[in-house]
Structure formats: C-alpha cells, structure tokens
Amino acid sequence: MNGALEQLSFLRRTAAGPAILTVQDMKLGARTSTIHINLCQPSEKKAKKGELEIKVAGYITVSPSTAEVGISSNTGWDLQPAAQPGTGPNGSVNLAALGQTGRDGKWVLLQPPYPKFRRATLQLELYGPDPALGKPKVIDQWSRFRPGGDREARWTNEAVAFLVDMFPMALGGLDQMASASTPSQELAEKTARFWYPTVTLNIDFKKRLPAQGAEWLYSRIHTKVVRDGRTDLNVVILDEQGDVVALSTQVGLVLSASRNLGQRQTKI
C-alpha cells in the first residue's frame, strides 16, 4: 500500500503486553479502502477486571500504489523558521558526522528527560539543536530507530507511525510550562510530574520509504495552545532529501504522572 491515512482515538490507557486487534471492512474500493480497527486489552476496573475492553479505536484508509494517479505539484512549502545549521552543504546537517561524533554544527546528541517513565524514548537515538542555545519556538530533531538497542535497525513505513508520537524534547518544554503554573513545586525534579496521554491522533502518510528503510528521519514539532489541561501537537516528518514523509496532528491532555504509574493487567 502506498498512500495511507490513520485516524485514531485513544479511549483508555493501554499497557505494555499482548493485545487483541479486531478489523472490520468499511469500504473496499479500487482507489481507496477503509477499515475500522479496535485494540482491546483487559479492563482495569474492579467490576470488569479481566474483561476485554476497547482501548484504541480508529479508521485506516489505504490506497494501492497502482491506484496512486493524478497530478503532483511543488507547492514551494519549506520549513519556517529554518532549522539550525550544520556543517554540510548550504547549512545542512552532516548526518555522518553527527552519528559518529554526537555533534555537527549546532546539533548534538540529546538525552530525553525521564526515560524510565517515558520508556518509549529508549527505542530511538535522538539529535537536536544544542540546548545551550536556549528555548526554541519549535522542536527540531533528527533520529535513528533503535528498537531494543538494535543499531542496524532502519525506519520503515510502519515505524513512521511510532516516530510521529516521539517528541520527548517537546514534552520537556511542556513540563516547564506545566511546572510554571504550579510554582509550589520544584522545577528540577528527578521524576516526571506530568503525563501527556494522547486523545486523538491523525496521520497522513505522504511518501513511502525505500524497501531497505531509512537510517535518518527529521521531525519538526510545534504546539500552538496549551489551555485547561489540553494541548495540541503538530508533527512534520522529512527524509534526508527534504521530502515530506508524513504529517501528523494530535490532541493530548496534561495530567499528573501519578495517574500513569499504577499496575496494569496485561494477561489475556
């Protein structure tokens, strides 16, 4: 499949472990096909302990590559503001140097905050502008896929769906804003105080990656408004050639981290 759209609603918190997926055909067509999918895990409620309940529900629309016909046009879109420069041609980042030394121009290897709490960040290697440059208006990152520490892994079309939800440095900025609204607490804590569960996630896959995968992908993340415990996040994924691979928008909540620390049942 070439083109794809995902619209997901996260109804309840999930747990690391087995899950059951149910798939229902909604429309099967020559140009586009749409399926409805539910991800189910055991309920955490005492009255329904062990009963399966829907945790995530969504619609996925796909198009076969043979059906992807029609006009294509260069819109002239570009990143604004421009990303921090590297030492490559025209100020691009020298990814080979960045990966080997952990630094290129104003870009450095980053250590995501609270990795024990946000364990998914351990599955990628993250690089961004040096934090010493100050707080940016947008978050830029280059990343390499490292599932289980596998240094030979590459970004695949399926893994892009994981990447659009990986922006630990953006969450670090939200941590600071949320902490500023509760000045009675210390800002520099060793454990995360806030949890940002996704409510809705929409992904538009624009370009298929090579069959062998891609070593590097770039993300641009920005937030427009944080209000009444709810935030928005917009993500653009580019490849090394600067082509748009995927676009994502999501709505999330800002909650106490204590609400995501309880034990969860994963046995099905």
Automatic annotation (TrEMBL):
Coiled coil: none
InterPro entries (alphabetical): ACOT8-like_C (IPR049450), Acyl-CoA_hotdog (IPR042171), HotDog_dom_sf (IPR029069), Sec_Metab_Biosynth-Assoc (IPR052389), TesB_ACOT8-like_N (IPR049449)
Domain (Acyl-CoA thioesterase-like N-terminal HotDog): residue spans on this chain: 7-43
Segments forming domain Acyl-CoA thioesterase-like C-terminal: 108-254
A Pfam entry, by short name: 4HBT_3C
Protein name: DNA, SC026
Organism, as annotated: Aspergillus oryzae (strain ATCC 42149 / RIB 40)
Organism classification: Eukaryota, Fungi, Dikarya, Ascomycota, Pezizomycotina
